[in-house]
Amino acid sequence: MSIENAVTEHYHHGSLLNAIETALVSAGKQISALSVTDLAPVDEFHIGGRAATENLLQQLGFTEQDHVLDVGCGLGGGARYTAHHLGCRVTGIDLTTEYVETGGQLSEWVGLQHLVALISGSALEMPFSDGCFDGGYMLHVGMNIEDKARLFAEISRVLRPGRVFGIYDIMQIRQGQPTYPVPWATSMDTSYLATVEQYRQALDAAGFDWVSVNHRRDFALKFFDELLARTNDMTGLPALGLHTLIGDSMAEKFRNMISAVREGILAPVEIVVRKPD
């Protein structure tokens, strides 16, 4: 089995759209009157959820006139938020066809199908012409991609000169490995954690100029503590959440990830780069 097929298999649910629809109805939501906010509990599959998305977007300066690329878009939660918040067009690409198809339906449910397009494909060989995007981002994607030099070279190819790209990934902070499974991988076979320096080397090789690096471990630890506090105050899980997406293995995967962040082995990091003019 290829690495990309193994990654797709890790994320495959089997009846994801039905599970989300059932959870929304259980939460008292009407499918005919959904908002982007209603989908937030399942839409933001990265540490910090929507707050993390907002923080990265604030640094990228996208406008209503821009066409933005979402690499590894998953269900398209970040794409929908970006399109809704800024009014711009967003195109997302992801390996997992079930995520893309489900995300397309979710975009229709919230009336954003005219701004958000999600397609199935590899970030290492994107079906886009050179210089067709005004900027882009990726949220917790690089951990599943071994060849980061090729990834960033491909991203550079499809960006217009002078445009920015934002990265929010879990990175290796010191030696050691998390206990598996974790949210992005069942085992080390599909986990390609890298250091900030390794990201720097790959981005430099693709010709990007560095804008900023922001370590987000403290933000992550606060998020985990607040999540634990909310969970302790609840009786059972909410109708809609990442458990809808991940299933019964969610608790183990998150426990392992949180432990690795608390131990200082891993941490989420933001990197913003610019393609030279």
Short description:
By secondary structure, the protein is an alpha/beta fold. It has 11 helices and 7 strands.
Quote the average pLDDT. 95
Name the helicity range. Answer: 40-55%
Supply the CATH architecture: 3-Layer(aba) Sandwich
| Largest sheet strand order | 3-2-1-4-5-7-6
CATH class: Alpha Beta
Element-by-element helix/strand order: HHHHEHEHEEHEHEHHHE
State which percent range the strand residues make up.
15-25%
Shape: globular
Give the number of helices.
11
Largest sheet: 7 strands, mixed
CATH topology: Rossmann fold
The assigned structural class equals alpha/beta
Walk me through this protein's architecture.
- The chain is of the alpha/beta class.
- Helix content is 42%, strand content 17%.
- It contains eleven helices and seven strands.
- It has helices at residues 3-11, 16-26, 36-43, 49-58, 77-86, 97-109, 148-158, 196-205, 217-232, 242-246, 250-262, and strands at 67-71, 89-94, 116-120, 135-139, 164-172, 209-215, 266-274.
- The chain has a seven-stranded mixed beta sheet, sandwiched between helices.
- The longest helix has 16 residues, at 217-232.
- The chain is globular and about 55 Å long.
- The chain starts with a helix and ends with a strand.
- The mean pLDDT is 95.
SSE layout and pairing:
Blueprint: H1 3-11, H2 16-26, H3 36-43, H4 49-58, E1 67-71, H5 77-86, E2 89-94, H6 97-109, E3 116-120, E4 135-139, H7 148-158, E5 164-172, H8 196-205, E6 209-215, H9 217-232, H10 242-246, H11 250-262, E7 266-274
Parallel strand pairs: 1-2, 1-4, 2-3, 4-5
Antiparallel strand pairs: 5-7, 6-7
